[in-house]
Amino acid sequence: xxxxxxxxxxxIPAVLLLLASRxxxxxxxxxxxxxxxxxxxxxxxxxFGEMITIGDPNERFFIxxxxxxxxxxxxxxxxxxxxxxxxLSIPIEIKDRQAVMITGxxxxxSLEDYFLNELKDLKKDExxxxxEAGTVEIDDRNCNWLLFHNYAEHxxxxxxxxxxxxxxxxxxxxxxxxxxxxxxxxxxxxxxxIIKSFDIEED
Length: 203
Hints:
- The chain has a single domain, classed as Protein Transport Mog1p, Chain A, CATH 3.40.1000.
- 19% of the residues lie in helices and 38% in strands.
- The protein has 4 helices and 12 strands.
- The chain has helices spanning 14-22, 38-41, 111-123, 184-195; strands spanning 29-30, 33-34, 51-55, 61-66, 70-75, 79-85, 98-106, 128-138, 141-150, 156-164, 170-178, 199-200.
- The protein has a 7-stranded antiparallel β-sheet, sandwiched between helices. Strands 3-4-12 form a 3-stranded antiparallel β-sheet, with no helix packed on it. It has a two-stranded antiparallel ribbon with strand order 1-2.
- A hairpin with a 3-residue loop joins strand 5 (70-75) and strand 6 (79-85).
- The longest helix has 13 residues, at 111-123.
């Protein structure tokens, strides 16, 4: 399972066409998960203060993050991770905690196959409840998104956006997290401003 609790083509992949066509009507599902317009249509303005634009060491992508947040990076031979949050270094109430995580992988799977495998794996996790899925455009790319809730010491709501570099094995998971169980949809929409700043550098 790629999410840790935590093919962009000229011809749009079949699963994206399926999602895009079905999201317009109620009752449609993929792998039993309702398809909705929640994430692609949410557009709430958010102010995070001063922002800083950073990228991975090889400048494969860039993203703008709140300057005041704690930003941590990790590397292995085939995985790059960036985690930014407003609570790791300072005390803050649970309901106000929020975070963004960027994870990059190398995979030979197409975007649609990777996404479907994720859904299959996550459905096996009893600590996770898959809520909604759909499509969204980030960095001028057609992406999949997934909304889920995981049961931990404090419940956390996540939106993960799946995107892949054109003509490449690089796939990226853009994950937003909020601990606010009452207003989690609004909080995740606020965090979308950060996710929308994600920019893959093409060769």
